[in-house]
Amino acid sequence: MGQKLSHISLLFLIVVLPTTNVHGYDGDGVLDSGLIRCPTFRVIFPGIPLEDGAKARYRAKGVPDFELILRLVLHRRDRMAFLPWEEGLEVFKNLEKANTSITVQLFENGREIRSSGPDVISETWIFAAYVDISYLWHRRFNHLKLDSEAVYELAFKIETESPVPEHFRLIPMLEGGGWFETYRPPPPRLK
Fold first, then answer.
1. CB-CB contact of 58 with 173 (8 Å)
2. DSSP string covering 38-68, please?
3. Going from the N-terminus, what domains does the chain have, and what CATH number goes with each?
4. Which residues in 126-150 are b (16+ Cβ under 10 Å) and which e?
5. Which of 24, 46, 64, 188 has its CA at a distance of 20 to 30 angstroms from the CA of residue 58?
6. What pLDDT score was predicted for residue 57?
């Protein structure tokens, strides 16, 4: 019995503990990792209000060196909840009507390596959803291969020609790893 328990403890140390801080992550977001769920790694940054002139800049070091995607997850502050497909689609259409544009820049060790914008949301950002979480993604911020030793900065700016409901925000997430890295069904493009 004692030997069996020590084998289980050793398995726990080998499998579970390394997932708690695999890459020595340090930054403005939170690294969420796990063996069972997919994507395996997710860096969640603080939300950005959907209002004209909103800006945010986040720093991260020790990000997973898996292929990642940047998702801008639609979130409702007054209910502290992610938006399911139908509600997210309604917000997306309101952002289109308000002629909302998003500028995103990705810096590696102080040097810009990717950027988009200002891109009108309806022309370049793609609306999609999975597991009752609706989000936006951009082709330029898909298939990101980042170096876990580098320091990254993500800069965002939101511009809108007319007001959108103030209780909505975007939560940037870098996600990847697991079967997610090899299997990517194309998200639907809505017109």
1. no
2. SSSEEEEPPPEESSTTEEEEEEEES--SSEE
3. 24-181 (2.60.120)
4. bbbbeeebbbbbbebbeebebeeeb
5. 188
6. 97
C-alpha to C-alpha distance for 129 and 85, rounded to whole angstroms: 6
Task: Write down the H helix ranges in 22-159.
Answer: 85-97, 121-124
What pLDDT shows up at residue 39?
59
pTM beyond 0.85, yes or no: no
Give the residue among 93, 102, 111 at the shortest CA–CA distance from 71. Answer: 102
pLDDT for 9: 43
Find the helix or strand (DSSP H, E) in which 151 lies. Answer: strand 151-159
CB atoms within 10 A of CB 32: 16
Helix (H) or strand (E) holding 108: strand 101-108
Nearest to 44 by CA among 133, 147, 124, 160: 133
* Locus of tokens 């997710």: 42
Report the distance separating Cα 51 and Cα 106, nearest Å. Answer: 21
Structure tokens at 147: 């170096």
